Amino acid sequence: MIDFEWRTELTAADEPELQHLLRSAAAYDDEAGFPQLHLDDLMSEGTSHLLVWLRADPRLDDTELALAHVLAAYLRVQPRPGGIGEVSYVVRPEFRSRGITTLLLEKIGLELNVDGGWQGTGVTALRVWARGNHPAAHRVSMRFHHCGISTIALEWRLLMPVRDLPAIDPDAPAVRRAATDAERSAADQLWQEHGGREAIPAGAELFVAGDGAELTGAVWVAPQAGEQTEYGTAGRIYGPVVPPGNQEALRTLLITALQPLRDAGLRVASTVVDSADWPVVHEARLLGFMHDRTDVQYAVGATGDTRSLPLPAEVD
């Protein structure tokens, strides 16, 4: 049913068909909000690529596909410190729910503690995010539970109507728009230390608390994010993030981040929080943020830092 082949580098011959797969998946998954993979994504050194082809099958409904040897899925493994492999995976929309992922894993296995790491990629642990606790990802995790697949982290997407915003407590720590490279660098460092698994988009506005580069909090807001929700298009808030033991600025950072979204005429704000980050969850819920979606991180082997990139699409 399938053929597959690992690459340490993608070749020019691979690119047209892979580009078609990624673009068709991106278009299909756009409304659902799945993250998208691209050929020009920034990738860590030592990234491995697995290409999966569906063999010609006259039983397929589509005559063209029935006679073709077509690229059906793509898996990317990026090495991280500690021997962890960060997995991203996408299946061509026409071939979802056909058992391709199950068959692939049955063929390649999940043996990690072998020479050269998993499938020669050099990694000895795997982790992957399933957006929206995707049922296909859950089915795969249950099917291969005996291989050590476990749930290690949960993140929640929270939504809030942007209309009458709460007043900022005059005694709360002051929050301002970042104005210097030192502030932006310190905020980026806070984001990384906090485990932010997403890249902050270019053009996002940054607000900070604290003196100079000694920040006590940071939050980014992207009115142009264009996230689709049942309540309309949402702007996106990234954070807030604060150093350990410095929760005083959280509420003010969140309220401040909501203001540019209201000023842009948006009706909804969106943010993603670690479900275990109680101070941020607490303040967000007090302000009126509502739970919209749960993202689940699965791992095999040693877990290490539990935050990474999300699984782009259905894995069944």
Automatic annotation (TrEMBL):
| Organism (species) | Mycolicibacterium chitae
Name the UniProt record assigns to this protein: Mycothiol synthase
> A single GO molecular function, which one?
acyltransferase activity, transferring groups other than amino-acyl groups
Superkingdom is Bacteria
Boundaries of every N-acetyltransferase domain copy: 20-161
InterPro entries according to UniProt: Acyl_CoA_acyltransferase, GNAT_dom
